[in-house]
Design brief:
Shape of chain A: globular
Helix content of chain B: 10-25%
Distance between the termini of chain A: 36 Å
Number of strands of chain B: 13
Number of helices of chain B: 10
Oligomer: heterodimer
Number of strands of chain A: 0
Strand content of chain B: 15-25%
Radius of gyration of chain A: 20 Å
Radius of gyration of chain B: 19 Å
Number of helices of chain A: 9
Strand content of chain A: under 5%
Helix content of chain A: over 70%
């Protein structure tokens, strides 16, 4: 890809990722966050986290299916880091607007409320991934170990989805769509692996005859 | 206690009404314009459903009301805009903004309530007769949702006890059950949940007879908007909001506790009593505090009051009961 094109695309991705934050700030300043602004902030930051996580997880299967789109890999780190950024905003919303900065309230929430426990776990799983996102960290860890560590993203995504289900009322099915999306993204990995394995096998079997 | 003090609500707390009345007028005229344009596009049948006299005309009609000594004072009212656009009425969608968009088709006229079960004679009451049964009172109540948000709403109605007297329940009747309107063709969104419809709620007889329990026809001096439970609902201000059944079509007197919707859905989360209680957490979140609707995000959080602040009037009902067990 040409450098100028890459810069243009990166700018676009930055703008798209910052969009929800600027929207929240603008609506807050103009007093337009709706009847329950706290809930709007919480829901928006949480949903954007899950969506960005889904987009970052979609890049690998798309590259495997459509080799022409391989260049998408250049955006995975950026999108993943933005997912962590919104997860952190989401966490801060809870600390400030729900727990009121009270350590006691936070501790009792984490211990007593499973949706907060699993949400906290999701953030803690994303943290080392964000911390090791630099080229330096990749070199230091070595590609294989780095890849292994970054498999945690699947666990974080699963925790995130469970976190969503556990805080809607029983019988409410709003988290269905994002759950299906993550489900497809997760099962696509072994399926694509099996397919490429078969392809390899087929080539090796045919090879002697060539 | 804030209740019963003669200090009236300061007029400053009420003034915003003019503002959103204007806004509503504008929205209504805008809506009419859009509707006129839309007739050809979406078909006259759908439009008549929304705008016909049997549905929409009644919401917002002015009601003749009298003041009430049972009104709550010293609270700033939640705006009409927020009260009528932030609703839990799952038959019209699970998102808070959906009932305001989808409840237009609720046929609020003709409407009657069927009274059955342990009564002298089963009866049917017409909505227009019920509107004239007793003088309609303006009653401001705090409204606390189990989801930890709250409002202050000026309801219009009279004590449910007045209606119950007309029903002539037998002495063996210990509970009263309320069943809400349900028609899957009108309330298409109900099937987006796994809830068993119609919505059912219930009260113990002494709770139902407490003068605070309001048979409600309106809010802000006007006929209830459909999304707020038109044309008739109950309001039980010391209990979580879901106890206050909307759009009631059937009232049943029983000698045993009736099955109630959220209690059936998740008995460990939603008790039959569901009194507002800051000391008993919902299994999934704390009930110590609440978010007041309509305030900026940094000013929403406030402490939740025992019995939503109505302990003086209702605590006696639960004497000797363990409210941790009977939550």
């Amino acid at each position: 890809m040409r450098r100028s094109k890459l810069i243009a695309l990166k700018t676009l991705v930055w703008a798209a990722c910052l969009g929800p934050l600027f929207w929240l700030i603008w609506e807050a300043v103009t007093n337009n966050l709706g009847p329950d602004p706290t809930a709007t902030i919480t829901f928006t930051t949480g949903l954007v986290t899950l969506r960005l996580l889904a987009i970052s997880l979609a890049i690998t299967p798309i590259r495997k299916l459509v080799p022409k789109l391989s260049w998408l890999i250049r955006f995975r780190r950026l999108i993943g880091l933005f997912a962590f950024f919104y997860a952190t905003l989401h966490l801060m919303t809870w600390i400030a607007l729900y727990a009121g900065f009270s350590l006691d309230a936070m501790a009792s929430d984490v211990v007593k409320r499973r949706y907060i426990t699993v949400g906290m776990a999701a953030w803690l799983l994303l943290f080392p991934l964000a911390a090791t996102s630099t080229n330096w960290a990749i070199r230091k860890l070595g590609g294989q170990q780095w890849s292994l560590l970054h498999k945690l993203v699947y666990l974080a995504a699963i925790c995130g989805v469970i976190h969503y289900w556990w805080q809607v009322k029983p019988g409410v099915l709003t988290p269905t769509t994002i759950t299906i999306v993550f489900g497809i993204l997760l099962v696509s990995r072994p399926i694509l692996a099996i397919l490429s394995h078969r392809k390899r096998m087929a080539t090796t079997v045919r090879a002697p005859g060539l | 206690m804030l209740i019963g003090k003669p200090s009236p609500i300061p007029s400053s707390a009420i003034t915003p009404k003019e503002k959103y009345l204007n806004r509503r007028k504008f929205l209504q005229s805008a809506a009419t314009g859009v509707a006129a344009l839309g007739v050809s596009a979406i078909g006259a049948e759908r439009v008549s459903q929304v705008f016909s006299p049997s549905t929409r005309v009644f919401a917002g009609t002015k009601l003749a009301t009298v003041p009430s000594p049972l009104t709550t004072t010293g609270e700033q009212l939640t705006s009409y805009q927020d009260v009528s656009t932030f609703n839990n009425f799952y038959e019209f969608g699970v998102q808070k903004y959906q009932p305001a968009q989808n409840a237009g088709g609720l046929p609020t006229r003709p409407w009657s309530i069927q009274v059955e079960g342990m009564v002298k004679n089963p009866k049917t009451f017409d909505i227009d007769a019920l509107l004239k049964l007793k003088p309609l009172e303006d009653r401001v109540y705090r409204h606390r949702c189990v989801e930890a948000w709250s409002m202050v709403i000026p309801w219009v109605g009279y004590s449910l006890s007045e209606f119950i007297k007309q029903c002539e329940p037998l002495s063996g009747a210990k509970y009263v059950q309320f069943l809400s309107y349900y028609d899957s063709s009108v309330e298409k969104w109900a099937s987006e949940t796994t809830i068993q419809w119609p919505y059912s709620e219930g009260l113990r007889m002494d709770e139902a007879m407490n003068p605070l329990t309001l048979l409600t026809f309106g809010l802000y001096g006007e006929v209830l908007p459909n999304q707020n439970g038109a044309p008739i609902r109950v309001v039980v201000p010391w209990k979580y909001g879901f106890k206050s059944a909307k759009s009631i079509v059937r009232v049943r007197f029983l000698d045993r506790q009736p099955p109630t919707t959220w209690n059936e859905q998740a008995p460990n989360e939603y008790g039959f009593y569901s009194n507002v209680n800051p000391n008993v957490d919902h299994p999934r979140w704390s009930q110590k505090t609440e978010r007041r609707i309509g305030l900026p995000f940094y000013a929403q959080r406030r402490s939740t009051l025992m019995f939503n602040g109505y302990g003086d009037q209702v605590a006696y009902l639960y004497k000797g009961m363990d409210l941790r067990r009977d939550f």
